[in-house]
Design a protein that fits this description.
The protein is of the alpha/beta class. The chain has helices spanning 14-25, 49-63, 73-89, 96-115, 159-162, 174-183, 205-210, and strands at 5-9, 29-36, 66-71, 120-122, 127-131, 138-142, 165-166, 218-221, 227-231, 265-271, 276-281, 289-300, 309-314, 322-328, 336-345, 352-357, 360-370. Strands 12-15-14-13-16-17 form a six-stranded antiparallel β-barrel. Strand 5 (127-131) and strand 6 (138-142) form a beta hairpin.
Length: 371
C-alpha cells in the first residue's frame, strides 16, 4: 500500500496503540484521534475517559504522532444512547457496542477523519478487511486470534466504510500485540482490556438504568404459574440472567430436567402484556433452548442479502459459530429466519444474530423473536 495519511482511533488501550505504531512503522503519516462519547457523568469513578485520554496522549508521545481530542457525545446520545433506551423500554436487550461502531466509530469518526484529510482510518479491532478481486467487494473477515475476534461487533459496516478502514492487529494474536507494546516501551503495554461501555463502566447496571427508565414492579412466576417473588421492572432483566433475581432462597423439590432442588433460577421469558417475569430452574431447561429465530433491521456487508442456504451464526458474542439454515423473508433483505441444527441457549430479542460463511462475516440483524 502506498504511503497514506491515516487517522487512528486511539482509545488509551493497547490494541489501538499498537495499531498506530505498526502503521507509523510502515511509513504512513499517522494522526491519533481520541473519541469522547459520553459526558453526562464522566467525572464519576465509573467512567474512565479522562484516564484513557491521558494514556492515549502518552502513547502518541512515545510513538511520535499528533493526537486530537474530539467530542462525539452529542452524536452518541442521539444515535446510540436514545436507541439503547428505546430497546430496553420495549423489553429487549440491545448491544450498544454494535450501534456505536456503525454510527460513531465508522460514521461520525470517519466523516471527521475525511474532513481533516485522511485517506483511511484505523482502529484496534480484531478483524480483517479483504478486497475480493472477483466480486470487487470488500469482505469483513474474522480476526486471526479466535479468542479475540470482534467481527461480531462490526457486522453492520458497509462497503464504503470497509473500503477506508484498516485493522492491523486483526492479523495478530493478542499475546503478540502485548509483546510489541512492551518491546517498544508503550506505557499502557500491560493495561487491562476494557469491559463494557463507558457510560455504564463497572457500575451496577440496574442502578444506572434506573436513572432513565422508571421501574414497574410485577410478579415473578415459574413454569407452573406459581408466584415466587416480585421483579423491579421487565427492562432490568435479560433472557438467561441468573444473578439478581431475588429468589435464591426458593427451592423446588419437584424441579425436573437436571434442575433439582438447588438448581439456579434463570430468566426465561418477559411477558410485557401482563408485566410478568417467567423464570425456570436449571441451565438446560427447555424454555431456554431455541431452534428458530426471526431477525429484522438487517445489514449486509456486500450490500445485498446472501442467498438462502446453510451458513453459521452467532446469537451472542462469546459463542462458537452454530450451523444454521438461512431463509430470507423476501422483503428486500430486511428480515430473515434462522433454523439451527442444535438448540441455541437463551436467544435474546434485541441482541444481534450475525452470519458467517467460514471466516467471512456476511452481516446480520436484530433478533425479533425466537422459539
Amino acid at each position: 500500500m502506498d504511503k497514506q495519511r491515516i487517522v487512528v482511533g486511539l482509545s488509551g488501550g493497547v490494541d489501538s496503540a499498537v495499531t498506530a505504531y505498526l502503521l507509523k512503522r510502515q511509513g504512513h503519516e499517522v494522526v491519533g484521534i481520541f473519541m469522547k462519547n459520553w459526558e453526562d457523568d464522566d467525572d464519576s469513578e465509573y467512567c474512565s475517559s479522562n484516564v484513557d485520554f491521558v494514556d492515549a496522549a502518552a502513547v502518541a508521545d512515545v510513538i511520535g504522532i499528533e493526537i486530537e481530542h474530539v467530542n462525539f457525545a452529542a452524536e452518541y446520545k442521539d444515535r446510540v444512547f436514545a436507541e439503547f433506551l428505546r430497546e430496553y423500554q420495549a423489553g429487549r436487550t440491545p448491544n450498544p457496542d454494535i450501534l456505536c461502531n456503525a454510527e460513531i466509530k465508522f460514521k461520525a469518526f470517519l466523516d471527521h477523519a475525511v474532513r481533516v484529510g485522511a485517506d483511511r482510518i484505523a482502529t484496534g479491532h480484531y478483524a480483517r478487511v479483504r478486497h475480493n478481486p472477483h466480486s470487487g467487494l470488500y469482505e469483513l473477515l474474522k480476526g486471526l486470534d479466535p479468542a479475540k475476534d470482534q467481527s461480531y461487533f462490526l457486522h453492520r459496516l458497509a462497503q464504503g466504510q470497509l473500503a477506508r478502514t484498516l485493522f492491523p492487529v486483526g492479523e495478530l494474536h493478542k499475546t503478540e500485540v502485548r509483546r510489541i507494546a512492551a518491546e517498544i516501551g508503550l506505557p499502557n503495554a500491560k493495561k487491562k482490556d476494557s469491559t463494557g461501555i463507558c457510560f455504564i463502566g463497572e457500575r451496577p447496571f440496574r442502578e444506572f438504568l434506573n436513572r432513565y427508565i422508571a421501574g414497574a414492579p410485577g410478579p415473578i412466576k415459574d413454569e407452573r404459574g406459581r408466584v415466587l417473588g416480585e421483579h423491579v421492572g421487565l427492562s432490568f432483566y435479560t433472557i438467561g440472567q441468573r444473578q439478581g433475581l431475588g429468589i435464591g432462597g426458593v427451592r423446588d423439590k419437584g424441579a425436573r430436567r437436571g434442575g433439582g432442588d438447588h438448581a439456579p433460577w434463570f430468566v426465561a421469558r418477559k411477558e410485557l402484556a401482563t408485566n410478568t417475569l417467567w423464570v425456570v430452574q436449571g441451565h438446560d431447561h427447555p424454555w431456554l433452548q431455541y431452534g428458530v429465530l426471526q431477525a429484522a433491521d438487517s445489514s449486509w456487508i456486500a450490500g445485498d442479502a446472501p442467498a438462502d442456504g446453510v451458513l453459521a451464526a452467532k446469537t451472542r458474542y462469546r459463542q462458537a459459530d452454530a450451523p444454521c439454515q438461512l431463509n430470507m423473508a423476501g422483503d428486500g433483505g430486511a428480515r430473515f429466519e434462522l433454523s439451527f441444527s442444535e438448540p441455541q441457549w437463551a436467544v435474546t430479542p434485541g441482541q444481534s444474530a450475525v452470519l458467517y460463511d467460514g471466516e467471512v462475516c456476511l452481516g446480520g440483524g436484530i433478533i425479533d423473536s425466537a422459539a
